[in-house]
Amino acid sequence: MSAPRLECIRLRPYHPGYLVAYLGLGDAGQPRPAMQYGLSLLGACRPDTDIVLVQEYDDVCMHCEKIEADAQGSVWGRAHSCPSSRDPQVVAEVHRENDVILEALGCSYGAALPAEDLFTRLAERLPDLAHLPMQGSDTIQKNYATGMEELRKQWQAVG
Fold first, then answer.
1. Has residue 56 been placed in a domain?
2. Structural domain tally of the chain?
3. How many angstroms separate the CA atoms of 37 and 23, rounded?
4. Is residue 3 part of a domain?
5. pTM for this one?
6. Is the CB of residue 136 less than 8 Å from the CB of residue 129?
């Protein structure tokens, strides 16, 4: 019997690349709890699962060990905050990276894409992450390429 269909995943535009890179890492490393949860979402994700690109607090953030209750909220959303949301340099880098990724994908915030479409666009339109301010490293690039292949294998096994 197959696993139940995951209806949608809410992600900030820069999170899919990180998730794919962590998937490519395999058993070689232990990601933070938020990314572990993101990987579990990716594992439950089917090719037709919608990925909604959001600007604020997303499904990965929900499991971050740094998240704090905050009635005033933050730049990432309502009723919570985190250290990165209080650092103007980090906020600017996240927005800059999200803008680059959205432009490459031909999307805007709020877009809902089937996972296979989103990750295919990422692989085709952003095959090299080197120019991205937060993800541009050789290690992430190698793991990203491996992760894309792993994701394709996962989906071939589903259907």
1. yes
2. 1
3. 12
4. no
5. 0.86
6. yes
CA distance 76 to 85: 7
Q: Which domain holds residue 70?
A: 8-158
Q: Has residue 133 been placed in a domain?
A: yes
SS3 per residue for 70-137: CCCCECCECCEECHHHHCHHHHHHHHHHHHHHHHHHCCCCCCEEEHHHHHHHHHHHCCCCCCCCCCCC
Higher pLDDT: 110 or 63? It is: 110
Give me the pLDDT at residue 110, please.
96
Of the pLDDT bands very low, low, confident and very high (cuts 50, 70, 90), residue 159 is: low
Which own/partner contact pairs does 115-123 have at CB distance under 8 Å and 24+ positions apart?
Answer: 115/9, 115/45, 115/46, 115/47, 115/48, 115/49, 115/50, 115/51, 116/47, 116/48, 116/155, 118/16, 118/51, 119/16, 119/20, 119/148, 119/151, 122/16, 122/17, 122/20, 122/148, 123/148
Amino acid letter, 93: E
Residue 63 lies in a domain: yes
Count of C-beta atoms within a 10 Å radius of residue 13: 28
Asked if 81 contacts 74 with a C-beta cutoff of 8 angstroms, the reply is yes
